[in-house]
Amino acid sequence: MEEKAVSIEIKNLVEKWKGKEGNLIMILHEIQNHHGYVPRDISLKLSEMLDVPLARIYEVITFYNYFKLSPPGKHRISVCMGTACYLKGAPSLIEEIKDLLDVEEGKTTKDGLFHLDVVRCLGCCGLSPVLMIDDKVYGKVKKAEIADILAKHGKEG
Amino acid sequence: MAVYSKTILLKDTNLAQEDRTRDFYTNFLQKLEESSLSELVQVVRVSDIGVYNKGVVIKIMPDNIMYANLKDSDIPRIINTTIKEGKPLDDLELKRTGRQLRIVLRNCGMIDPENIRDYIGVDGYLALKKVLLESTPEKVIEEMKKSGLRGRGGAGFPTWMKWKFARAIAADEKYVICNGDEGDPGAYMDRSVLEGDPHSVIEGMIIAAFAIGATKGYFYIRAEYPLAVERIQKAIEDARTCGLLGQNILGSQFNFDVEVRLGAGAFVCGEETALIASIEGKRGTPRPRPPYPSVKGLWGKPTVINNVETLANIPYIFLKGGDHFAKAGTATSKGTKVFAVTGKVRNSGLVEVPMGITLREIVYDICGGTSSGKQLKAVQTGGPSGGVIPAEYLDTPVDYDNLQKLGSIMGSGGMIIMDEDDCLVDIAKFYLGFCVEESCGKCSPCRIGGTQMLRVLERITEGKGRIEDLDMLRRIAFAMQKASLCALGQTAANPVLSTVRYFEAEYKEHIVNKKCPSHKCSKLASYMIIQDKCKKCGLCQKHCPAGAIPGSREEGYTIKQDRCVKCGQCFEVCKFKAISKE
What we know:
The complex is a heterodimer. Chain A is α+β, with helices and mostly antiparallel strands. Chain A has 2 domains: 3-63; 75-156, Glutaredoxin (3-Layer(aba) Sandwich), CATH 3.40.30.10. In chain A, 48% of the residues lie in helices and 11% in strands. Chain A has 7 helices and 4 strands. Chain A has a 4-stranded mixed sheet with strand order 2-1-3-4, with helices on one face. In chain A, strand 3 (131-133) and strand 4 form a beta hairpin. The longest helix of chain A is centred in the N-terminal third of the chain and has 15 residues, at 3-17. Chain A is elongated and about 50 Å long. The mean pLDDT of chain A is 87. Chain B has a 5-stranded mixed sheet with strand order 10-9-13-11-12. Chain B has a 4-stranded mixed sheet with strand order 2-1-3-4, with helices on one face. In chain B, a hairpin with a 3-residue loop joins strand 3 and strand 4. Chain B is built from 22 helices and 17 strands. By secondary structure, chain B is an alpha/beta fold. The mean pLDDT of chain B is 91. At the A-B interface, helix 2, helix 4 and helix 5 of A face strand 7, strand 9, strand 13 and helix 15 of B.
């Protein structure tokens, strides 16, 4: 990433949230949503502009599950492990995905295509077990359907 | 598009039977055709109609008449009397027991949440007008006291008291925070209210601000709820345009404005002091109380934190009066509660019921019993901070105090139904695992106690448990309850304690006999080939990762128990159900 582009981006963000107390988390949200993670060079720049130590920024990033420090895969798979999904067989879905993609929880596949996350509740317990790939929600998923679902997203590239 | 004057919803509500709606549907259409009504009446087969085991059921809209146990021969009467003349047929009509009562969800699904005019059309912001122009903060708190409303976020602290404490402190700035950090897995009522009726929450918040004298408010909403965030943001802008937020609201002297702040995936941020830290842009770790937030909260100023559902109740209270609100409910718990009923239940979803209704009514009358048709084993309420209530207590009236007596809590309103197939030791392990992962790590009782208890539970589910483990669980749980800094640690042991209390026999079965009665704990299962059913296809042998299935297509196969790693692969791949799991 070019130094210049980073500066402008951060400048705009800091400008937008300037003067609002407790703005750090909201700024990090915008960075996370834009990049899919919080790159280190942006954190460094942010630390300069907000005049807060880098450690303070990292302390916040690492506390909250939502912020990531490494780039995500092209497609994000979120398997819900809320109580309803757990009871209805979410653990076997996770095993199946791990097997098929050879990937661990919280990690990205070697080809960078899929990132597997286990999340706590997607808030649609009526459809359990649920998994979400990018913004598409799949409800009442059966283990046997996983390969098809993954193939569909894999093909889109 | 055709405009129909009536719509008929049709559903066969009996399980385990052939769906009879196809013939009924064709018949109905034909009879409508004969009366030349098919242009005016639409018949729709639906997947759920909200009643169960009442045969073929139809619901006629907009008359809202429901007929049950219908036969084909009833069709002509229905068409002639109800559809043509608009008269109900008493002998067919299904009188609903009407146990649901919508206060919090009164507008959800009824109005367009993105249109402020829709909300105003159903008396929205009328309560605010009454409060601002005709009342005083003291009177508002007095009215809240009459209503008896208690916080819907979990602990059930009386809302009026919170407001009174914050009002009593003199400060240059006070804050109101709406807690929309709904992190309990299995609960989504706050999400539904934020998405379905955002203005009622904003209105409740403005009234709260008026009562305590706050000029600034924050919505703290999970980032995982993007639609809720979007709708609240739009609702705030619309309210501002209409003069309902900002300076001199509705021409009064009162100024108040709100902002949205996003949560970032930390369960502990539902705890008041952690939530405040998070809004301040810090790590969401709790701090000791007192001082309570109503004395020293956000940026050291008096702060009232109310849950989404609590706030959504408030406009209703001021429209109808506190006394009217207090008519629903029990002596100590007033009004209604929204529950998210999920798990092994036939009709899962949100239900709003008056306090004091029994668990049985919720599970069987409203939600249609277990989805599997099997015996109900237990109901879990309150999420990771709550407990498990066994089937024998199903007739307990639901309110804050009764649930607490049973070792559970009301919590935010998650209600998980479990049947015979669920292992309670496994469930306790699941919830505790959640709390261990979400513990912020600040205080040692929670951080270390949780981890140690989880180890014990893992040991038990793997068949390595010792009988003294039960006492150890109780001892650690007691320490966590007494010594943890915040509610997360104090309540994290509840799922374990309540299962040990009610299902001690099941724990002992795991520990002494090394058996899981519901066959859920795979490490305790033993797999066998049922020779009568086996077709000698060899699939199990192919999939066994431990080489524990010797044999050949001619001689058949057996599972060597001493080599079996209990992965369950053979059980899953067998196409003939020839492998037993015990």
